Fold this protein.
Amino acid sequence: MARVLLNLPRSAAKGSVIEIRCLIMHPMESGFRPGVNGSILARDIITRFSCDYDGEEIFHAELSPAIAANPFISFTTVATASGTLRFTWEGDDGFRQTETRALTVT
Amino acid sequence: MTWLLALLLGTALAQPRSGALDMSRELQALQADDSANPGMLWVQEGEALWQRPEGRAAKACADCHGAAPASMRGVAARYPAWDTASGAPLDLAGRIQSCRSQHQQAPPLARESEPLLALSAYVGLQSRGLPVTPPEDPRLAPARARGEALFRERRGQLNLSCAQCHEERAGLRLGGSLVPQGHANGYPQYRAEWQALGSLQRRLRNCMVGVRSVAPAYGAADYVEIELFLAQRGAGLPVEAPAVRP
């Protein structure tokens, strides 16, 4: 399991804009670099990040080999109703990580 | 007093200046925001390791030291310090190692390994904002003097000393990059170049290899001596661990 830092409010006023910041520990090996013995290191990147708000996708990003290690993604959404935010990172070699956070809307 | 003496000899920096002040605004923002600073990923790992029992003694760091925010406050600011048991100065990672072997009876962690960096980052974080305060222990003086000699010794095929860049040419540019004064107040630190957290020893090795000299192995006494001198030289700067640098 990769370490993840998620930063979002636990509660928000209905209709307000909330900022969500996600940082994940990942090498993002580009697949173009030679290793110590001169052979090319296999690509190992996160290819897709998505965020679901109560089952509905509100944000997704496609990541490419040019993105640095430990990608940081920040986006905003409108707090419409109390529910669960589910964050999913998918990548090479079957990498898949999911985190959930509850959001209370008042 | 030693500071004044060094000033009279014309060797001290007029005013230590943290490398953070000369970074791009983007990197400064990255360091300042704990939800964006990638070093905090290692801190999070370190926090988990702090609670985890290890070794034959099956003791966690927390079993002796309690909650790190209280017990470890100010610790990173005063390391390297004298270790009575081994009769030598130890840096923070060395102290974690010795604690591990003596009290946890656990096998040593490799220098630059992820768990050791994580624990160092977690302990370092507890001193954030406090001034670097090297101990005035007279037993440290010979090692510190050796560290200063190493700092001023020309080395490698390029025949450069640390001081030639980081004192005489600090603030000028090497290629496109600003030459910083080279203070050690943010370690372990996240370098964009490494795309990972690394220790001061790793950074020292970078420069040593850069001037094409032979870098001693990790954990060598030379590094701790230079670290001692650097702490003295940057005394008073705020601890920034885990810092972000280009």
